[in-house]
Amino acid sequence: MSLRHFLASAAIAAGSFFVVPLSAMAQQVEPEEVVAHFADLALATYKDAVSSAETLKDDVSALLREPTQDNYDKARESWQTARIVYKQAELFRYASAQMADLSHRVDAHPIDEGFLDYVGNGYTPSPDNPYARFDLIAQPEISINGETFSWDDMSADFIRDKLNFAGGNEHNVAAGFAAIEFLLWGEDNGEGERGEGNRPLSDFDIANCPDASCNHRGTYLLSAIELLAADLSNMANKWDVTGSARATFIENPDQALNHILSAIGSVADVELVQNNFEAGLNGSDPQAELDTFSDYGYASHLLAARGILNTYLGEYYTLDGDALEGASLADLVAGTDADLDKEFRLAISVTAVRMRALIRYVRDDMPLDDVYASKDPDGVEKIEEVVAALHHEADLAAKAADALGIGPVSFGPPMSTN
User: Fold this and answer.
1) Which 3 state secondary structure label does DSSP give 406?
2) Which of 161, 233, 234, 271 is the most buried (most CB within 10 A)?
3) Dihedral (CA of 97, 98, 99, 101) sign
4) Would you say 124 and 341 are in contact if contact means Cβ atoms under 8 Å apart?
């Protein structure tokens, strides 16, 4: 099934994107084959991410040329498609220090959105940020970090070198998914149908704009998407046949397998549980919610979990519907401990069922940020069930590493080359 069809058929709500055979005829595979195929999965995923970012730029360009509601909806849907492709690559960020370093610009959040564009009276920025209400889009010229620039200077390179993390503050995010999301949806003020942002279409109507802000918004948005596509392309290139990330993995297969299983546990136990679900339930800052402006965090969580399935089973379905399959961790584990492989497959299936129930709830009954804020009992119960399932996946990753003789694994934040 193609990812585009997956979106169009609302399979996120139905959960059919997770189909896990509970047993399979294991292939006899070598660690080198599994590691090489993992690199192939990474390459294919990042290539799709590049393609989806390029489509996003085309659709935003169409919106700026002809600011209609249909074009606005299409641009937003393109962001969502790009997002769910990229979130399947979450595991690569934990497995590879190079991906972790590059993703820092691609997926930085939370952001002080007042740095970029107008916000309402309820906006609460991070403390001690002099640029928290900079409102880049409204500036006739851009005075930043002691320098002054014209809007003619706006480009992908300018965002990367001059705007992103201005003043050394990581909440001044000018690049990546969250910045683009804010420009497309607007502030998370609860005015949308499901609590998402409700930026008016007129913000992109350059011909009828009362000032230069609409033109600035379009210029900045296209430059930010261009930078996103370039960063994703760089990530894809690292996994190509001559890429440095692939070479690092191929060089030491046992170490690579340890990093892969560590990444499975880290995505489950650290990224999804600690950084998202538990932070949401225990925190008081609604801006900490992932994809807060579009209220699309539930899909990002699902696709990060899908990345675990992709990695364990050694499969990936491309945007065009092609199936990439090959030597997998499942094959390797089954060859050593068939019962452990079955338990791992079952755990992934249980996570899928519970995630499906949570997603239906936050789509149809109560948005995820409202569940966090109100501690809604039904929503909290569903989150806790997902958390328990993810913890079990992490435990099984550790057991698999021990069974393969490549333990112990380490769960924690992404590695870095710095």
Assistant:
1) coil
2) 271
3) positive
4) no
Among 100, 59, 39, which residue's Cα sits nearest to residue 257?
39
Q: How far apart are the C-alpha atoms of 192 and 186, rounded to whole Å?
A: 10
Is the pLDDT at 85 greater than 60? The verdict is yes
Quote the tokens at residue 22. Answer: 């509970």
CB 174 within 8 A of CB 164: yes
Q: Do the domain assignments include residue 399?
A: yes
Domain count, the chain: 1
**Structural domain for 48, as ranges:** 3-403
- SS3 for 18? coil
Question: What's the pLDDT at 416?
Answer: 74
Rounded Cα distance, 135 and 114, in Å:
6
Predicted confidence at residue 92, as pLDDT, reads: 98
| 317: enclosing H helix or E strand | strand 315-317
Taking the C-alpha atoms of residue 163 and residue 142, their distance in angstroms, rounded to an integer, is: 10
CATH number at residue 374: 1.20.1420.20
Tokens 């892969």, located at residue: 260
pLDDT score of 114 more than 60: yes
Tokens matching residue 277: 């679900």
Residue 366 has which token pair? Answer: 């109560």
In a domain, 417, yes or no: no
Helix (H) or strand (E) holding 325: strand 323-325
What confidence tens digit (pLDDT) does each residue in 354-391 have? 999 999 999 999 999 889 989 999 999 999 999 999 99
CA trace torsion 42, 46, 48, 52 (10° rounding): 160
pLDDT at 27: 79
- Give domain status of residue 411, yes or no: no
Residue 413 lies in a domain: no
pLDDT digits (tens, 9 = 90+) for 144-197: 999 999 999 999 999 999 999 999 999 999 999 999 999 999 998 766 566 789
d(C-alpha 137, C-alpha 119), whole Å: 11
